[in-house]
UniProtKB/TrEMBL annotation:
It comes from the Bacteria. The keyword Signal applies. The keyword Transmembrane helix applies. Residues 1-23 form the signal peptide. Residues 531-626 form the Fibronectin type-III domain. This is Fibronectin type-III domain-containing protein.
Amino acid sequence: MRRWILAALLSTTCLCTPSQAKAGPIAPFLQGIWVGLTTGVGAAAGIGGAFATGMSAGAWLVGGTFLSRIVVSVGLSLLSQALMPKPKMPPPPEIMTNYAQDVAFVEWAYGRVRKGGPMALSAYSAVPVVNPGGSDAKGKRHYGVLIACHSTRGPVVHYLDKREVELDAGGFVTTDPIRWPEGSHPGVWHGQVRPYTGQPGQAADPVWQAAFPEVGASDNFAGLSYAGLYAARCATELFSQIYSNGREWAYAPVWDGCDTVYDPRTDSTDWTDNAALIIADIATRIYGKQVDWAEVAAEADICDQPVTNRDGGTQKRWTINTVIRADMTWEQARAHLQMCCDAWFYERSDGKLGFKVGDYQEPDLILTAADFVSLTVKHKATDPDAVGSYALRYVEPARDWNEEVSGAVIVNPDPTAPRAEEECFGIDSHNQAWRVIRRWAATAQPEWSITGTLKYIGRQVMGRRFVRIQHAELGLDCRCEVGLLARNGGSHTWQIQAVSVEPEDFTPDALALEPPRTLRASVAEDGTVPAPASLSGQVVEGTGGVALIDWTWPAQTEDLRQQLRVRSPDAGLPDWQIVDIPGGQGNLLSSGLIDGAEYEAQLRNRTNAGRLSVWVPEAPVVVQAVANTDPPPAVEDFAATVAGSTVVVGWTAPNSPRYVAARIYRAAGAGAVFGDASVVRLEFGAASLADSWTDPGPGVGAHRYWIEPINGSGIGGPVSGPQTITLI
């Protein structure tokens, strides 16, 4: 490293010392909460304090003038060289959470963001709700999520937990399994989302009004963007599929934020993701700054310029999609906005806030050795501990608006060199993230770093992002970006920190230079739980008059448990009864059955995590319960005789306690066989006794008869016959 010190550096402190200030927009926000709750929703309704107070705000800091009393301009190099604190914004998973607390910081949403928010209500009710299937009286957990403290354009994509869902016109979730497939299970509809965007005339949520008498028409959350939801109870076997986290879903939609951002080019307000317009809105609306709207218009035009990305497509040059919280100081918000679009901030001569988005302008001011009281120049040199590559964490819409890492900007090809990862979650495109981190790398390791004390000419540097610095003795002649300019109190001198830049730093060729996105292999995951191959059921014999069915299936892997469901309309059990089976079993014995009733059964596998296979077989196995499986012996003395136009069938019952009755079969024709016959009589009688039955009118012609003894469960013994007769 080479260093030249041309004069003693005048000692001065260039710290950003923010002073406290009160945020103007907070008061109307709080008023909107309290005016919206004039009915006094109370704990008796089961409504928690989060609904009663909504979001509030604590003390927060903003700069007294711009950054402090003396600092008048600041650039990206101050952050990249760790001369100012880097912005620390909540990562996407934290932004997407729903949390219940009585006091929460106000949040402003700009551009397109995926976010959750504090709970506005959480209460249970069984009041019926009319859904597309009719009136639904299932118990429901009603809750609300506050998205922003202002009006917005509204939701773009809805997420319940990590699942992207579709809604119908009434807000009812139509995505399986939350909307269980029609006909496969009662209670098809389980969720509803009702978004509100804080527009004038916003009415109170009608579902909450119907469910909770304490919620009145004035409880309308005027001016706030939020969503009302409910999660309905479901059948036990569906719970793990519908509610994968074991409770109501976390709501974190993709939402188009503030729709009242002023655009001086059209003298109108609307939604936008234009970086310059958003910076101006945040500075004026939240932090009470003043801006020059003509300058804002010029910067907005730069932001809308199309740039080419690695894929050959075009996109806007600079956008911002972010969330600002009321606990952020102006310095924190400014540093975050600065990283989003390579912005440069300064204090204008008229006292207003000035800023420039990332764009190069050829310097029109030259500083020479005569303009400096003192000057320190550092030339870039090889440092074994220097960072070798830089990458930026940003928000990637293709990953459900989750965090992603940009391709690396390599400044030292040595693979052992350290890697630095910065973060900026107000960026949602790889190309913009790459352009920002490329500039970050250039300012972190510039060709020349210059620090010095300027004479009164420092006043001319105000408002200039770029200057040219020449020093004949050192042979120095370079374009520089002003990283920091500050007035030294009590004197007419100025402190300056600058780094050398090249025009191409601001217009890199993405087709040639933009690195590929982080490779994330897409692996086809089969989360299907394997179903048992088969299920069978057999009546258990020799039970002494007790009806039992043994259900059996092939052995399953040890990580699976089984569930058997059984029903029997014959036995008065029309609904499925589900039985959880301990691990390692290959059968289940059903007892307490009704003799002669038919029982249907299906089987499925279940993982330890509660995931389920399909029921098998598709058509249930049907088995008739039998209490007595031992048939009686054959009857004796079986005969059939003609008596006029009738036939008398006679027999002697077997000497067996298993005998209960006899089935008598008849078929027409002298050559008929047993397979042609049908039952014409079930005659009950006692064992060992002679019995008979008269067939009243079989008709003219030949007829054949058979007889079968049965036990109490209808199990038949040996068939006797045939006996043939002819009626004339």
